[in-house]
Structures are given as C-alpha cells and as structure tokens.
Amino acid sequence: MEISVFNIKGEDTGRKAVLNEAVFGIEPNDHAIYLDVKQYLAAQRQGTAKSKERSEMSGSTRKLGRQKGGGGARRGDINSPVLVGGARVFGPRPRNYAFKLNKKLKALARRSALSYKAKENSIVVLEDFTMETPKTKAFVEILNNLKVSEKKVLVILPEANKNVFLSARNLEGAKLAIAKDINTYNVLDAGALVITERSLEDIDAVLNR
After folding, report:
1. Domains annotated on the chain, with CATH
2. Where are the beta strands (DSSP E) in 20-168?
C-alpha cells in the first residue's frame, strides 16, 4: 500500500511511502484490541480506594445491648456495621488492577488498530522534521497545513524531541508518541495519525517480527 509523503508545509513531496501490508493491511482482530485496551485502562487505575473495617476503627468495645430480646439485629460494640457510623463489611482495599498479556497478542492488537486507521484513510505520512525552538504556533501551523487540526491527532516520532514535545503539550487535541512505544488505545483514540518516514521504519521493525 503506497501513500504520499507530505512536508511540514502540507505540500506533496512527490515521494511515496509504502505501508507494510503485514502491519497496516491485516484483517483486524477485535478481541485482541479489546484485551489490549482493557489492559491499558486497567493499568491507569490508581487502585487506592479504601474503607475502614471493624478491626480498624477506634471506639469502645462495650456491648451496647443484650444478645437477644431487643427486637432487632444482634450487635456488639459501637463499631458494628449494623449501626449508623459503624464499620463497612468487606469494603474496598488497595489493589493493583494490572494484568499481563502475551507480547504476540499485544502486537496483533496494535497491527489491528493501525489497519483500521489505514482503511479509514486516517494516516498522513510526514517527512522527517525538527524544530529549533519550542513554538506552539509553529506546531499548530503544521497541523493546519496537513488539514488535521480539526481532529484528535497522534503524531508519531522516531525518537523523543524536546522542542516538538514542548510545542505540542498545551494542545488539547494533539498527542505525541515514540514509534516503538505506540499503544492500541492511543491509536484508536486519535482521529488522524501523522507518522514521520523514519517512524514507519521503526513501526515495521517492532511489529513485523
């Protein structure tokens, strides 16, 4: 699959980039996508919810009423879950929601997400560029030139670039990612993918093993 390469001015360079069919042209596996996105979102959870149980509360341990004959539920001290202000039974405890997935399944999920974007014609290939100084206005101009400024954009770079990152971090609808670190959730969440030429090579190297 061939796609035109654009420069930062939005002009067609006349060159063509080849999207590897093994990465961008497979039949998407929805279940793999579901599992990978589920794992990503689970890993974002803090898991710090906590409520006090009976043994953790301070208060008198005196039994408030007799065991039987009171006409209500049996209860012991003032910390009893039966009483208002008492402890909670089987309340939430801090936990880790993360779980593991096989590397091959995660790679399949990413290939599936990229294939969906290719089918939707939501991929723009940009020639490699850099920014001498951080400037949000210049980054917005690049998105405008590529006609993707109205969408949620994921810009995929071959390596970390501080100036580009600083230029994009204040834009609500724009995210940056390193080619070897892209994840299924961010790819699907974006309305358009802007991938630099070197990033295509890195994606092929990581996902087409």
Report:
1. 2-45+101-208 (3.40.1370.10), 49-96 (no CATH)
2. 123-126, 153-157
